């Protein structure tokens, strides 16, 4: 697919009218720390940050990575995936599990 740019564009494109998935196609971002540590072998994205936070005592019990579909508008992220609803819920769960500890939210976009 990557060797055929037209095929790649067909699979990554959204419906021009709705801004959502075209009929018969469903593409979603990978989730979790593994989705953002390395882009491909040898090219790290968040791996060094994740490793250093782990050294300070953070792990998947007190740190969260929420991938998103960069192709979508914020409105469609919520409509299709309930992204902001899920993000809010996950932050609230983590804060409540840590006796109302403060939450730090770090955003990154391509």
From TrEMBL:
Signal peptide: none
InterPro entries noted in UniProt: AB_hydrolase_fold (IPR029058), LACT/PDAT_acylTrfase (IPR003386)
GO annotation terms (biological process): lipid metabolic process
GO MF annotation terms: O-acyltransferase activity
Protein name: Phospholipid:diacylglycerol acyltransferase
Species whose genome carries this gene: Eutreptiella gymnastica
């Amino acid at each position: 697919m990557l060797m055929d740019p037209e095929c790649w564009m067909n699979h990554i494109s959204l419906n021009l009218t709705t801004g959502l998935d075209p009929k018969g196609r469903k593409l979603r971002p990978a989730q979790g720390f593994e989705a953002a540590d390395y882009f491909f072998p040898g090219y790290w994205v968040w791996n060094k940050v994740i490793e250093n936070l782990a050294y300070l005592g953070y792990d998947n019990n007190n740190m969260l990575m929420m991938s998103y579909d960069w192709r979508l508008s914020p409105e469609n992220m919520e409509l299709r995936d309930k992204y902001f609803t899920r993000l809010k819920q996950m932050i609230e769960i983590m804060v409540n599990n840590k006796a109302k500890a403060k939450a730090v939210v770090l955003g990154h976009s391509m």
